Amino acid sequence: MRAMFLLEMKKNLQDHGLLFWMLILPIAFIILATAIFTSGSDEATKQQVIMSIIPGYAVMFVFFIMISMVTTFLKDKDTGMTARIASTPITPKFYLLGKWIPYMVIVWIQIVILLVFGKLVYQIPIEQPFLLLFLSLALAFTATGFGLSLALLVKTENMGIALTQVIGLGGAMLGGLWVPLKFMPDFLQTIAYFLPQYWAHQAFQDALNGVLIHKDFLQTILIIMAFGCGGYLLAVLRYPKFLKQARG
Amino acid sequence: MLVIHDVTKYYRNKLVLEHISLDIPSGSCIGLVGPNGAGKSTLLKILASIIQDYQGKVQLNNTKSTFQKKVLGYVPQEICLEQSISAYSNLCFFGKLYGLSGRQLKKRATEVLEEIGLSSHAKNKVLHFSGGMKRRLNIGCALMHQPKLIIMDEPTVGIDPQSRRHIFEMIRHLQETGCTIIYATHYMEEVEQLCNKVAFLDCGKIVEQGDISTLIQKYTTPSVFVKAKNLQVTALDKLGQISAYRQGFLIKTEMPIAVMKQILLMYQANTSELERLELVKPRLEDVFFTLTGSELREGVHSSSKESSKIGGVS
């Protein structure tokens, strides 16, 4: 598993496209959205908007890692690498973990950088940093867990990109990452409770402001991670079929 | 000893392998040949533990499958390497998957680089390698853990003669060290050069297997090629089965040396008329065509579960 992890990290560090998706694009969006939505507002409103945008966009953009995950798994499948690795003693569970963990690390670093960016540029408060670190880990686990299952479910890269948009943008819209939930219709507010984005966003905002209580923290962690576990389980179940489709 | 016993495999309803049984003694090199869609790659995937849902039994020296993977080296038909990293890193990656680490890993990677002739390119990215270099590295990755059984699926496709020769030397060296090799290919001359046994696979079945020279003797007849001025077919009639071939005649006979002597006698008086007299040795390719026919194949045979069941009942 360690060999898989190190190889995947090495490949990702060489991938400049990943840098664009994971850091440049979200930072550009944060700057743009903040400029648009705070224009002409008073200081209190401005601070309120920033406190929603930065964690909101951080949560939204972590899901774009799914594109990279789909690409790498499909490439391995088409080049015969998946089949070749299956002929070695590494078990499917460790193969999937070895491919998955590097993306978790990347996403975790991404969240940390985006929050530090918010702190340095927009002076957002970071009142509960330890809780934020754990929340970031849980969110990284879930977003990449989704990515893992998606990578093993889709047949083409285009399908993967399309579904990533649905999960990433759809989840952001319905989870209250773009518009505060209170401004949305009741039925959409109900849907939000079934989305990891909603729970992550709420907990991030509270932890930044220093009002996240331990009970809510644990509840959020469990809910978010349940989604991630679901993704991993789905991937493990899907793996035999994925291997059957692999060349080699 | 690798024992393949009564292996049958369906893809959905399509029968891909039908009651395959093959005993491969330790230290032997067996060629697996057959037309496209014969089931060679599927059989190799089963042997390499990539496909695990099949009927029948595959057993290596009475071991269980997890142990089998550690003693097995699989060289796939595709070039399965990480292009963005170096040859050395690729070898180390596969070595680690087989449990090598530390000094042992480094030592083995250096040895394999030497064996595959890529020592001077160890730190170069695979992306910039030629087809032959990639093929050699593809094999090298399967040799890192010094496997006892090596499965090679068309390892010489699309490479230059130098690389091919190097790969042949590597395979001969592996044979000398006692490795068992299963070598799937379309190139009959490779099987003749490298293997001592051959199995012909067609439409998911083993249609023949055995010693190469025995099969050539069993399925083919030697020929004598003669080209001469003013040569009449009637003069050759009694020597064997005659057919026109490259502006001369091919005489199929069980006694080629005797036939050649007779032809030489015929031209004793005027040797300048005899332009060419050659013994044409039968090839494995002739056995292949005898067993599988020469019509073009579409790639996949299509016996269905239902039809085979019906066939079985009737």
From TrEMBL, chain A:
Molecular function in Gene Ontology: ABC-type transporter activity
UniProt-annotated location(s): Cell membrane; Membrane
Stated name of the protein: Transport permease protein
PROSITE patterns, A to Z: ABC_TM2
Residue ranges occupied by any ABC transmembrane type-2 domain in the UniProt entry: 17-242
Cellular component GO terms, alphabetical: ATP-binding cassette (ABC) transporter complex
The keyword S-adenosyl-L-methionine appears for this protein: no
Keywords linked to the UniProt accession: Cell membrane, Membrane, Transmembrane, Transmembrane helix, Transport
TM helices/strands, residue ranges: 18-37, 49-74, 94-118, 130-154, 161-179, 217-237
Primary residence: membrane
Family: Belongs to the ABC-2 integral membrane protein family.
Domain of life: Bacteria
Record's bilayer topology term: Multi-pass membrane protein
Keyword Transferase annotated: no
Automatic annotation (TrEMBL), chain B:
CDD domains given in the database record: ABC_DR_subfamily_A
Pfam families (alphabetical): ABC_tran (PF00005)
Domain ABC transporter, residue spans: 2-228
Keyword line: ATP-binding, Nucleotide-binding
GO molecular function: ATP binding; ATP hydrolysis activity
Keyword ATP-binding: yes
PANTHER family, per database record: LINEARMYCIN RESISTANCE ATP-BINDING PROTEIN LNRL
Name assigned to this protein: ABC transporter ATP-binding protein
Name of the gene this protein is made from: sagG
